[in-house]
Design brief:
The protein has about 260 residues and is of the alpha/beta class. It contains twelve helices and ten strands. It binds 1,3-dihydroxyacetonephosphate.
């Protein structure tokens, strides 16, 4: 399904903080206040994926300097789905993006690729940029099944996403064994896996389109690993959990990743 979308000469590195189930409104305010004082970079895009209850207030205090988004949503537009949240609710609260298919959602809430795909389509239809998370478990990597796992997650998660829409999607490669474990994937693993993700995208779309998709790495990114990983070919940004909870460590990761990506 080839198609052309606009070509960008340079894109800035994208840093996404995923706070997971952390920070009350008060704590979020405190974080942003401190982060503004220590953060110096001007040429990177900085996004905060915050708990639902923080979206509106963080959106208001960052005053357009950073984007704010959600960590999950439902694919339905409204209705009797107790405890769920719809795209339009996120948009009106100030969200511009949403994380979809995080491995913690897949594992603890049994989300499958079909459900994740419906969320991706709903996010796109609602003008929320989806960050689709994919990644293999330790056993799958040991079994040399990584590529097959990623291919399934991508082909099923992106079913029905057109060549024009894929440029709005962000793919986050998060090997499950590297999340919250302190075991960052090596630059070699990240480079090789990101290349194979682009190959899969080329098969699903075409080379031109695949080249434009923003590909994040996530999994124990820290001030120690950020510099090398940010320069690793094929890495367009990070999705950061633990190290994004502290304003100084998040600012340090950003400072260490200072660069522009030629594409
Ligand atoms: P950690 O950075 O804590 O490993 O979490 C990564 C992650 O899951 C981001 O979505």
């Amino acid at each position: 399904m080839p198609g052309k979308s606009k070509k960008r000469a340079v894109r800035s590195f994208l840093q996404v903080a995923n706070w997971k189930m952390n920070k009350t409104i008060r704590e979020a305010h405190e974080f942003i206040k401190q982060f503004m004082q220590v953060h110096t970079s001007s040429n990177q895009a900085i996004w905060f994926a915050v708990p639902f209850t923080d979206i509106r207030s963080v959106h208001d205090i960052v005053q357009g300097n950073f984007e704010v988004g959600a960590q999950n949503m439902n694919d339905a537009t409204s209705g009797a789905y107790t405890g769920e949240i719809a795209a339009q609710m996120l948009l009106e609260a100030g969200a511009t993006f949403v994380i979809v298919g995080h491995s913690e959602r897949r594992k603890y809430f049994h989300e499958d690729d079909a459900f994740i795909n419906r969320k991706v389509l709903r996010a796109l239809e609602s003008s929320l940029k989806p960050i689709l998370c994919i990644g293999e478990t330790y056993d799958e990597r040991e079994d040399k099944a990584t590529e097959a796992v990623l291919e399934k997650q991508l082909s099923e998660g992106l079913k029905g996403v057109s060549s024009e829409q894929i440029g709005t999607c962000i793919i986050a490669y998060e090997p499950v064994w590297a999340i919250g474990t302190g075991k960052t994937a090596t630059p070699e693993i990240v480079e090789e896996t990101h290349a194979s993700i682009r190959n899969i995208l080329e098969k699903l779309y075409d080379a031109e389109v695949a080249k434009e998709v923003c590909l994040l790495y996530g999994g124990s990114v820290s001030a120690v690993s950020a510099q090398v990983l940010s320069k690793t070919p094929g890495v367009d940004g990070f999705l950061i959990g633990t190290a994004s909870l502290d304003p100084e460590s998040f600012a340090k990761i950003i400072a260490l990743s200072e660069n522009d990506l030629a594409i």
